[in-house]
Amino acid sequence: MTLINPNEEMIILRLLAAVALGLLLGIQRERKKVVEKKSGFAGMRTHAMVAAGSALITAIGAIAFPSDPLRLAASILTGIGFIGAGTIIANAEKIRGLANAATIWVVAAIGIACGLGFYISSLIATLAIIIILELKRFEKIG
Questions:
Q1: Contacts of 118 (CB under 8 A, 6+ apart)
Q2: What is the domain count for the chain?
Q3: Residues 88, 97 contacting (CB under 8 angstroms)
């Protein structure tokens, strides 16, 4: 008798992949926070937790509902959308936090992909998002 069944081994692997990719995105956001000396950015812990939670719920959903593995994942993206909305600050002059909200949402999607076992796609998406976030350096200030 083993303590870990094959489903749990799969879930653990998917969870660890999601945490690693969430940490990568979180590190980029932490760097931005330090460089711009701003608070309010979701950082490493937040991104890792969103990715981990998304992966865990999706992996368990895929086992519990094999004919409809995205049943729980659809609810994740809706719920994370509400969390992201809470990070957006609007005033008369400008709107802040859109990239932060989008990053939280996309890290949930990456967690879902990891939860379904799409490791390469998740890695490519993570790298693409990091590149997109780094493009801020080239935007005109005006």
A1: none
A2: 1
A3: yes
